[in-house]
Amino acid sequence: MTVISATSDTQSLQAAVRPLTNKVALVTGSTSGIGLGIAQALAEAGAHIVVNGLGRMDEIEQTCAELRRFGREVDYDGANLLDPAGAAALVENTIANHGRIDILVNNAGIQHVSPVEEFPPERWDAIIALNLSAAFHTIRAALPHMKAQGAGCIINLASVHGLIASPYKSAYVSAKHGLIGLTKTVALETARLGITCNAICPGYVWTPLVEKQIDDTARARGISREAVISDVLLAAQPSKRFTTVEELCGIAAFLCGPHAASITGTTIAVDGGWTAQ
Ligand code: NAD
Prior knowledge:
Layout: H1 6-17, E1 24-27, H2 33-44, E2 48-52, H3 57-68, E3 74-77, H4 84-98, E4 103-106, H5 121-149, E5 152-157, H6 170-190, E6 195-202, H7 208-221, H8 225-233, H9 245-256, E7 267-270
Parallel strand pairs: 1-2, 1-4, 2-3, 4-5, 5-6, 6-7
Helix pairs in contact: 2-9, 4-5, 5-6, 7-8
């Protein structure tokens, strides 16, 4: 006979409503856009959050205060992920401050739009460093702890541009293809250890990163902002609308939860049908 106590009822309710209760989640680039949305979703699901990213300190403090509304611990680490040592230290500080790391979301990213022959080498280096190498450095630092815990969830924010290419985005496309390769490799190395590693591949989401691309693309192609949105950004996205941050948050929270334990090494396209073509 199963005895159901008030305590176990409360615990099951908590597990159902806040399945990430007391997990520690580090979300890189969570001061803005998709990363901020994912940090909110994980806090809502019960996780403690380490916020990372650039920005004005008063705005970041406001962001952290809003995340604390969910009743979890929230702290900010302003590590610059262009620096490999900074990326590793971000993970080590998370573990030092919270005693563990359960969820690592590699989300910080930048973009530059330019034909290959005009692409500034320093922009290439920065995009590869942030969009690809930083994920290697954080994963490398986190894995020994996740292995010791026998559990962990790694999510890499790739892109449809990790699956297919577009012109004028050589560094971004290269970095995102590499990030998917890293995702698959880490998944294979950890498949029997209770750790999952997956890549989310959004189509266009209207965030500050895309807002900046609109002007860059308009310049590169000599067309208006309106033409960039309809004829370039959404031209290949059959839904003809931007993917929303909320749609990505739901997938990230699901990947961190108990029903996604067998999902690893995969890419989840959230692109309004773009890569179905
Ligand atoms: P965003 O510009 O709104 O946010 C980027 C975040 O990265 C910010 O928090 C920023 O402060 C942080 N960041 C930038 N440089 C950093 C550095 N040196 N060190 C630490 N943090 C740094 O961009 P977003 O649109 O929310 O993009 C988030 C991720 O999603 C990126 O990896 C991006 O490539 C990917 N993505 C975005 C779209 C889109 O359409 N917006 C589509 C596909 C993939």
